[in-house]
Amino acid sequence: MTVTSDDSGSPAQPGPTVVFDFTSRPLDEMVAGCAEDPLLELVRNYVPAGGRVLEAGAGSGRWLKALTDRGYEATGIELSQPDVERFRAHYPDIRFDHGNIEAMPYEGGSFDSILSLGVIEHLFEGHDRALREAARVLKPGGVMLITVPHDNLCFRLVQFKNALRFRLLGSNLLRRLLGRPAAPYPRDEERRRVARVRETALPGFAIHFGYSREEGRAFYEYRFSAAQLSAAVERAGLVAEERYYLYPADRLHELLGGVASHYDGARPLRLTGLGRLVTRILPTSWCAHMVLVAARRPVSS
Known about the structure:
The protein is α/β, with parallel strands linked by helices. The chain has helices spanning about 25-35, 40-45, 60-70, 80-90, 130-135, 155-170, 170-175, 185-200, 225-235, 250-255, 275-280, 285, and strands at about 1-5, 20, 50-55, 75-80, 95-100, 110-115, 140-150, 205-210, 215-225, 240-245, 260, 270, 290-295.
């Protein structure tokens, strides 16, 4: 996948959001992978059969197709125009709008349920506006299922690993010793960029930095505690009902690579024997990649 900023074409400068392009990955295989995803069972438990579902920040559109195939009336909205155009070409009968989740073109109370799957953490300037907009288009009594990356023990270990890796990758002394060319970006410029991100980022949230061979580190996403996500949906006027911890294979892959899980680029990651052992030893909340909150819009009295 590629990552670009909504307004500058690069994630190097803090901007409204980070946008993904999934068009290099096989859409049909990603749709098939939804059948193995634990999220599908949660959707079935919370969303009425045949209900009208909005995916806010639908990415490739894979869940739109998967849910439509299971009898839901699915609509998506996404900022990545290439992904929207590819999906429309494959599945023209499913509505997929190009637009911003912070200002959606839907009437209030239009949807029985909303999915937001790994989206709001990429909004550098904050997620409150997007969540208020989601609450607006959700019908009274409707439920929102929202996932964000979880700030937990394994993420802190990943942070330490990445900090060491980034330092080594940016060291021209080490590069010379290894016979590699100098870093193509000025190290001082990278440091200033990271400092600006830290100074202007949301207070109290852990930050995950991405790494570009051309530009070094740049803002990628926020990481949330379960309490922070629950508080965010409550500020939007929703009532947080339950929390779930998902995808330990993804987080262990960040930490340990292929010795913990396998990834084929389309379907959910699969734990190896070592990965299964780690998940039996550690509480799920310590190693889950994502935390999901099910939040409901109150019914007006």
